[in-house]
Amino acid sequence: MDSTTIDQPGRDALLKLLRAPHTQNIIVITGAGISVASGITPFRRAANAIWETSITEMGTYSYFRAHPVESWRWYLDRFAKTTSAAPNAGHRALVDLAAWAEGEGRTLTLITQNVDGLHIAAGSKTIEVHGSAQLVRCASRARTCPNAEPGGTLPLSDFDLAPLMASGDAQDLPRCPVCGDLIRPHVLWFDESYSQHQSYRYDEAEAAQKRGDLFLFVGTSFAVGITASALYHAEERGAPVWAIDPSPMDDDEDLKEVSWVGEASEVALPALVSALRG
């Protein structure tokens, strides 16, 4: 199969479900796969995946506290492309899908695991449930600093991290302008919970899932909390679950109820929206 593969019977079945009168609340959950065509390295399921070996150790708050210089340099090295990346056809197709849903009097809730900001750049209303690479926050957990959890964030652009990348010296670490603690990336780490920051909007995401009539996953490995939550609510509601992903879902026993419609989101999603409008 090449990257343009679309399962035609699958696409037609998904179109029928999208058009069905009872499909009033559509839930779309995206992962790193949707941003591959924008030049963002995927996290899993690829030979050059970012998180394949290092994320479970280095993508944690405890590692950041113990090794802040190494943590920041690791993070910046791997997420540098997010500052120059542009939305691709898959991101733009989801804007069009949401517009179609609104025109039909339906709702589409877009939840992304990605921190690259490309859905928002494309024009989508998006729940960025894992944070944003464009933001940072104070690392304090005392909940007294306005720049820290549970609600504080600052633009990454407020801080010059070039000296840290060049020197590797702790004196160049970014500091909170209010309390003086370290500044950290505004991302959900593996030893943290969705409830730790309001901007993750997890309660909003879960409330939408509880109303979901159709669930569409795009480019996700189904290996994080938000996907597990969505699959649980889909099962509870008896809602159909579909995926656009590089491989069909029937090779994973845990995902046997997930139907597959195509490989590349930048191909399958525009084709789906085009057929829906046609």
List the helices and strands and how they pair.
Elements: H1 8-19, E1 25-30, H2 55-58, H3 61-66, H4 68-79, H5 89-103, E2 107-112, H6 118-122, E3 126-128, E4 131-138, E5 154-155, H7 162-167, E6 183-187, H8 202-210, E7 214-218, H9 225-237, E8 241-244, E9 258-262, H10 265-277
Parallel strand pairs: 1-2, 1-7, 2-3, 7-8, 8-9
Antiparallel strand pairs: 4-5, 4-6
Tell me what the structure shows.
This protein is of the alpha/beta class and 278 residues long. It folds into 2 domains: 1-39 and 86-130 and 195-278, 3-Layer(aba) Sandwich (Rossmann fold), CATH 3.40.50; 41-84 and 134-187, SIR2/SIRT2 'Small Domain', CATH 3.30.1600.10. It has helices spanning 8-19, 55-58, 61-66, 68-79, 89-103, 118-122, 162-167, 202-210, 225-237, 265-277, and strands at residues 25-30, 107-112, 126-128, 131-138, 154-155, 183-187, 214-218, 241-244, 258-262. The chain has a 6-stranded parallel beta sheet with strand order 3-2-1-7-8-9, sandwiched between helices. It has a 3-stranded antiparallel beta sheet with strand order 5-4-6, with helices on one face.
Describe what is shown at a glance.
This protein has ten helices and nine strands. It is α/β, with parallel strands linked by helices.
